[in-house]
Amino acid sequence: MALSSLVSSGVLLRGLCRLTLPRLSAVAPSRVPFCASTAARAQKEWIEVTYQKADGTSYTVQGKEGDNLLDVAINNDLDLDGFGACEGTLACSTCHLVFKKEDFDNIEEMCTDEELDMLDLAYGLTDEDVSLSLSGSGFLGVYQLGALECLHHHTPKLVQNASVAGASAGALLAACIACGVPLGIVKSSFIETAIAAQLWTMGPFNPNFKVEDFVKSGLEALPHDAHLRANGRLFISVTRVKDLKNEIVSHWDSREDLIQCLLCSCFLPIFSGVIFPVFRGEKYIDGGFTNNLPIVQMPTITISPFEGIVDICPKSVKSKPRYVKIANEELALTMTNISRFVRALFPPTVEGLESLHHAGYNDAYNFIRKKKNLS
């Protein structure tokens, strides 16, 4: 059972068994007495504490400075089944508190490694508001889908609440995250498009293959209020044709307005056609030409199917490659990366796409394990 202060609705976690009043020091109750003497404790001011259950039921009781919050709950015989079974020994992460950032910053003691390791197991652990940025990726977007699926499984609140930025195919994925489109539907759309492209000589570059038709079909999955869900949360990178300048768009007046912006962001000349799409009276093309990995606020978790200086991406095992910055993304200069760029335009087999999806999931999982607090 997770307990939280009635006035604390932020996203930072500390172990209930280690918090004391009012300084909230991180010490287990079995190791430290309430105070030096009963007389000294009696002189300390009473502090009101509110405990709230997941069903909304709350209990307000009193404790004094130095009292451990676990003991306050026990001493007041609160009806909170299932908490404190470990007697404050940090045997699990079931009991924890959620704070607003400004309250958490008032805690003088740093989280211990033991506490952080245990809180890794807590549901929806995040350290603060985090953004996601998805690079342009073509058919390799299934790698990013795998990474997003992993983040959704292990840090669901992060994915549900994060601002999301993207370019090209990354913008399509970002829009689906912001608008709540199930990832399974997005994956099926990617694979369906790849299979259709492989039926033609020259693949997606065949004049008879209209990739834009598949993109439009996939965008039908966006809900009717997609623009309202996306406004202020979704950030799309586009390239203005007249001066080849980058723009980041984050507000739309209608669902159709949003869809047209997405079509611009992933329009690759020749690959997508020869007639440039128009958005709000201006011609635009693929945002990946000028900003392939848009970062609009910090901290941001970056995700790309290309090896580079990116949080979640494939990594070289045997060597440390050189990097070059292209369109705001620092990429590794390796033959493997060059091969990935080719596969982004000429899709691999279904088995290859499934393998990429699995790799994205694993790389995201490794990232989560290395970062005790996502930041």
Key descriptive features of the protein:
three-stranded antiparallel sheet; alpha+beta; 14 strands; disordered N terminus; 375 residues; elongated; seven-stranded mixed sheet; 13 helices
Give an account of the 3D structure.
- With 375 residues, this protein is an alpha+beta fold.
- The chain is built from 13 helices and 14 strands.
- The strands form four sheets. Strands 6, 7, 8, 9, 10, 11 and 12 form a seven-stranded mixed β-sheet that branches. Strands 1-3-4 form a three-stranded antiparallel β-sheet, with helices on one face. It has a two-stranded antiparallel ribbon with strand order 2-5.
- A hairpin with a 2-residue loop joins strand 10 (278-279) and strand 11 (282-286).
- Helix 8 packs antiparallel against helix 9.
- The radius of gyration is 25 Å and the shape is elongated.
- Mean pLDDT is 80; it is low at 1-18 and 23-37.
Element string (H = helix, E = strand)? EEHEEHEHHEHHEHHHHEEHEEEEEHH
Structural class: alpha+beta
Roughly what percent helix? 25-40%
Distance between the termini: 26 Å
Poorly predicted runs of 5 or more residues: 1-18, 23-37
Radius of gyration: 25 Å
